[in-house]
Each structure stands twice: as structure tokens, then as C-alpha cells.
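Standup notes
- DV: blocked on the single-chain target, sequence here:
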Amino acid sequence: MRVLLFALGTRGDVELLLSLGHVLATRGHQVQLASSPAFAERLANSQIDFVPIGTGTTDELQVALLALENIPDPWERTTHFFENWLRPQLRAASPTIQRLIGSTDMFVSNLKLVYRRGPRIVPTVAITYDLPRQTSDLEISALTHPEVLQIVPLPRPLADPERQWGRQFQFTNYWPSTFVSQTGVNHDEELARFLDNHHSPIAVIAGSMMQSTIGVLAASMTGVARELRRGLIIVGANSQAVHQLSCDDVLCLRQADFSSLFAQCGCVVHQASYGAAMAAVAAGVPSVCVPQIGCQYALATRLVGLRLSAGIIAALDPPATLLRTLHRAKTDGSIHDSLKKFEHAFRGQSGTETAVAWMEHHFDNLRHAI
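- DV (later): unblocked, structure below
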């Protein structure tokens, strides 16, 4: 198959489809990944054909994210980001996508889009990983066509424990990201030395949406980590803003492989983005959620409800709140019991492998139906 992957959003959205692209490529399919120029550096060494679409540079994306700082409601933040970043970028990308559609066998996107080639809808895979505010929000008429396969890269017990989602949704296991060093710097030795001196440290993931608050959160976390006598590892491009905190008890890394790092940590503090949240559950490590937008708040609420997270905090909460929540993550036996129960949902075949098998089957069925 000739597969076109189309991802708009922040880095986590791109990483998810990139992991799918790698599996597709290993199975002999021709893969293109279209996304904003802001991710050109990340995708340069990915071995996937990258097509820059739209006009969104790294600086422009940072401006759009920083504009969310003064919007307190997470769902209003979502709307603001969609209207001021996603919609304009989608509009700018449309001519390129329409051109690429002409030579693709299957279109895959995180944006619930369908395209036509003549009178026919192009075989489509819609990837849904953001939990909705309410179940009715999942019903999008454009996605009810038989040409559309809807895949959820989450175990159903986590995404839909009450089985309220429609039968059209196919659930897979977690899709771990494919770690590729952007910097060319190997932090393995530095990280190993830090872990030798700090047993079960706290990892803080400075996700894209935490642009404006990571400095304040990291400062509070540093004091709390020292009080708990545990090291602190801050991971993310935004960790550059907190390098002044670096000391023997704090390690700042621009990037790290979540799968291997989290297995060595006692707790993970993240914004409840898909990649960090699922990697923490897969590693069996309790977390503290600092959601920034609506879908992250929905996932954080689900994690807390399932006893997979110790709680939801705000980045600007006082250190005492952080301390209580981290203490709960360490001592609440029900959280550790729940994480163990979820281990089976993250075992077995890779979620990306399952998704690709379904995509191949979907394409074959459509081709034989013509």
C-alpha cells in the first residue's frame, strides 16, 4: 500500500503516527508523513518520507501554545488552540493534501478527515486517542462510511471501561513511540550515573502544552523532591528553561526513551498527554497529572478514576499540594494494585502491529468489493 499519514497538533500527535509509519515501512508499505514544518528536525532522521505541509514553524507553534497561558478552562484552551493553530494550518495544508491524495491508497489522520478521489472516498483510517468530554462527541457523520476504519490506540478497559463507545471503534494495545535521538547526544552514561545516586527518582515530563508553566512547576518540584530525598529528572525541549535548577539532585534532559526511563522511576509527573501517560501505565509506575487542555483533563480524570494516577494538580499549585500528591503516589497501595491489574492490557502484540494488520485487512476488503 501507498499510505499517507497526516498529523497536525503538537509533537505527541506526530510521534503517534510516526510509530505507526515505522511498522508500515517494515512490512513493505510505502509511507509518507505530512505534518507542520515545526517537526522537520524530529522527522529528519526517522527514515520516513516527510512532507512539510502548512506554514507552521517551531516559533509559531510556541506562540500558539504560550497564548493558552491566560485561559483557565482546559476546554476553552482546546477551542482556542484549534481555532488559532489547527484550523489555519489545516487550511494552508489542504492543497498539498489534495495533491498527495491523488497517489495514495490509504489516508491516515488524527483529525477525523475524509477525502474523495472522484466520486469515491479514499480508504481512510481515523485515529482516536483523545478521550471525549462526552460520548456523543465521538459521533461524526463523515466517519460512518464503510471506507473508514476507526482505530483507538488504547486498551478498551482504559479508554471505554463502561463500553459506551460505538461498535465502529477498534481498540488496540498502547503504541509506544519510536525513540530517535534528535540531538546526537547519548545521555545513557549521564543518566546511569544519576540513577546510581538517586533510587526511584521522580520524572517530570515537560510536554509541549507546559511551555509557560514548566519553570514554576520545576522549581516547586525541586524543593519537594529534596524534601522527599529523591532525585528529579526533567525531560523535554522545555527543560532548557529550567537548567538554572540543575544540581546534584536534578537532571535535565532534552529527550529520553520513556519506556526505559519510567521503569527506573518511582513516579512520573506529566500533562496527561497520550505518550507519557500510557508509557507510565505500561511501566507500572504511578503518576501525577498536570493537564493543560480538555482532552488531557479527560484522560487525567480517567487515570485517577481507575486508580492509575495519584491525582490531578495545577502547575501553579503550592509545593504542599505537590508533596501530598507525590506521597500518595508512593504509599497508596490501591494505585499499585490497579497498575498491576492493568499489566495484562499492555502485554501481547504491539498495538501498532495490530493496527497495521487491521489496515491491511481493511484495504483488501475494500479492493475486493470494487
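- Follow-up: Residues 2-175+350-369 form a domain with the Rossmann fold fold (CATH 3.40.50.2000).
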